[in-house]
Amino acid sequence: MNPVNVGLLGLGTVGGGTFNVLNRNAEEIVRRAGRGIQITQAAARAYDPAALPGIESIDVTDDAFAVVDNPDIDIIIELIGGYEPARELVLKAIANGKHVVTANKALIAMHGNEIFAAAQQKGVMVAFEAAVAGGIPIIKALREGLAANKIEWLAGIINGTGNFILTEMRDKGRDFVDVLNEAQRLGYAEADPTFDIEGVDAAHKLTILASIAFGVPLQFDKVYTEGISHITREDVGYAADFGYRIKHLGLTRRTARGIELRVHPTLIPERRLIANVDGVMNAVLVKADAVGPTLYYGAGAGSEPTASAVVADVIDVVRTLTADPENRVPHLAFQPHALSDVPILPMDDVVTAYYLRLLATDKPGVLSDVTTILGKRGISIEAILQKEPAAGVAEVPIIILTHSVQERQMNDAIRQIEALTSIHGTVTRIRLEHLDCD
């Protein structure tokens, strides 16, 4: 049987890794796919030939549309990233009857509904395992391995940059800005780190995971997104005093009123396995009704870890080239006509517990005023920690852990607390999840 011809868009970090993995493991891949898989043309504006043994044997052009329009190519691998021209290239490839493999989480989160509809109409596949958590096969696990289950919730550390920063702050007592600068020097963070530290990257990924978990359309615009730039080393230390660790978590949960979809810093009990995922590593914890909790851990980025997922998708496409399109695994796990219109909950309606840090005048009655405000709004307290003021300082930090309450009630309480003359500055609020798996 003739080999399957592949066109590769992008020869950067992931594109180069994909080229090398396909070449290095060609014999093993044939055994798994049943056919040879060969990159015959690639598009790149710049690349390092020395890092790509064998690249001289294929046609490399700077015109990505020429690759997409090549009639001899069966599968397009899109590794350019971003929204445009990636969207236009993918839609053109689909219109040309080609299958697509992509690692582009932003593209899928923002334009996936349009792309999947076009692919369904043309009877081609769009595979995107590498778009979430790099080399961790979490999409395949949700779409196939857990297909018998009703997913209750999932929580993920799905951005390595943020996890590296919070790990360093905890282990070495360093400040956020100091660790961010190091992450940029090490190549873990971009020159403009906004997408990573403000949660946008994680929100793209969570959008995809939620759609697959619950069978709803992709709805990136409804993700509540909060970054980690306001987290201090003091917050990390206080969390540890209570037996918690702070992680930048993506969390989605099915409730009777709708689906929670949120990314924010979160206190997690330190005994949880996911709380011990450190550095640039990723992990996703899934709670399903039949199997219970399952944890998926591994490298969330990098050249060959991500290439591992890309090539696995190519192999899956090759295995099903002759299959009836109606019998393939659906893009979002559920049949296209069976996607649900369950609403995404506004953040005000989400119920969770909280860590509050406030700076108060060191005088009698202040703590009583704060607890009265919380009590009147039905917010019960789990624990309080009041630190001793430094010598010559008139303000003292107070840390409060609450039981679960609706976000709307907490917002009202925080406004009232901040209005007290004895409270200085804003109240720091970090949500708290126990992630119980019983």
Task: Give an overview in words.
The chain has 438 residues and is an alpha/beta fold. It has three domains: 4-135 and 303-338, NAD(P)-binding Rossmann-like Domain (Rossmann fold, 3-Layer(aba) Sandwich), CATH 3.40.50; 139-299, Dihydrodipicolinate Reductase, domain 2, CATH 3.30.360.10; 351-432, 2-Layer Sandwich (Alpha-Beta Plaits). The protein contains 14 helices and 17 strands. The protein has helices spanning 13-24, 26-33, 64-68, 86-95, 105-122, 138-145, 160-172, 176-186, 194-197, 200-214, 233-241, 303-319, 366-376, 407-418; strands at 4-9, 37-43, 59-61, 75-78, 99-102, 126-127, 151-157, 224-225, 244-254, 259-269, 281-288, 292-299, 351-361, 381-386, 395-402, 405-406, 423-432. Strands 7, 8, 9, 10, 11, 12, 13, 14, 15, 16 and 17 form an eleven-stranded mixed sheet that branches. The model has no long low-confidence stretch (mean pLDDT 93).
Brief description of this entry?
The protein is α/β, with parallel strands linked by helices. It has 14 helices and 17 strands.
User: How many helices in DSSP terms?
Assistant: 14
Could you state the CATH homologous superfamily of the largest domain?
Answer: NAD(P)-binding Rossmann-like Domain
Number of domains: 3
Overall 3D form: elongated
Q: Gyration radius, to the nearest Å?
A: 24 Å
CATH class (first level) name of the largest domain: Alpha Beta
Structural class: alpha/beta
Distance between the termini: 51 Å
Average of the residue pLDDT scores: 93
| Count of individual beta strands | 17
**pLDDT < 50 runs, ≥5 residues:** none
Strand content: 25-35%
CATH topology of the largest domain: Rossmann fold
Q: Quick one: biggest sheet?
A: 11 strands, mixed
Mind telling me which CATH architecture of the largest domain this is?
3-Layer(aba) Sandwich
Residue share in helix: 25-40%
